[in-house]
Predict the structure.
Amino acid sequence: MKFLFNIKFACVLCGDMTGQKVSLCCHCRSDLPIIEHACATCGIPLSVNNQSLCGECLQLKPTVDYTHSVFYYESPIDHLIGKMKYEGDLSCAAVLGDLLLESVSNIDQIPDVLIPVPLHNKRLVKRGFNQSIEISRAISKQLDVPLKIQCVQRTKPTQAQQSLNLKQRKQNIKGCFEVQKTLNYKHVVLIDDVITTGSTVNELARVLKKSGVEKVSVWSIARAVLK
C-alpha cells in the first residue's frame, strides 16, 4: 500500500501552516527587515547605493576583510534570535540558518572553512548550545564547506557586550580567543548571529590572521545599528 504525505510546517512567527522548508509563511517572510545595501567591510547598512565603504572603514580598515549581514537587528528578526538564544528554541536556529544560507548561496568565493564564533565554556554550559554552531550546520552541509568548532576557543569569560559602549567592548573582548594550532587556511568565514560594533569578530580575525589565515570574512544573521 502506498501512502502520500503532505508535509506541513508551522511558521515560527505566526504559527500558520506552511509547506515551505524554511518554516516561515509568505506573509512573515515579506516582513523581514532585509539590508539592501551595506559597507562591504563591516556590514553596516548604508543609505547611498553607490557607496561601497562606510566613513569609518575608509579611515581605519578593520581586521575583518568582508562582512555580510542579511537583516537589520529589529522585529521580527530580534524576536527569532531571542527565542533561539534565551529560550533554547532550536527550530528558530534552523530557520535562521536556512535564511543565511539562501543569502550566501550564490557567493563567488567559497571559503576553506566555516568557524562559528565560540562561546566560553561557562556560557556554553549555561545555555546548553552555541547558537552560531546551530546556524552554521545547514550552511556547511549545503555549501560542502567544513565546519570547524574546536580550532578556536574562548579562553576567558567576558561581560555581556550588550551592556558596554564601543571602547568597553573592545577592551572586554581583547585577548579572549586562542587558536589551538597554526591554521593552513587562506579564507575563513566566521558565523555569528548578531554583529553590533564588530569588536568580537575583529578580535577573532586578528587572532586568526596571526595564526596564518590570509582572509577573514563574516556572515551573520543580523546587524545592529547603534543610535
Notes: DSSP finds eight helices and eight strands in the chain. The longest helix spans residues 90-104. The radius of gyration is 18 Å. Residues 68 and 158 are 25 Å apart (CA to CA).
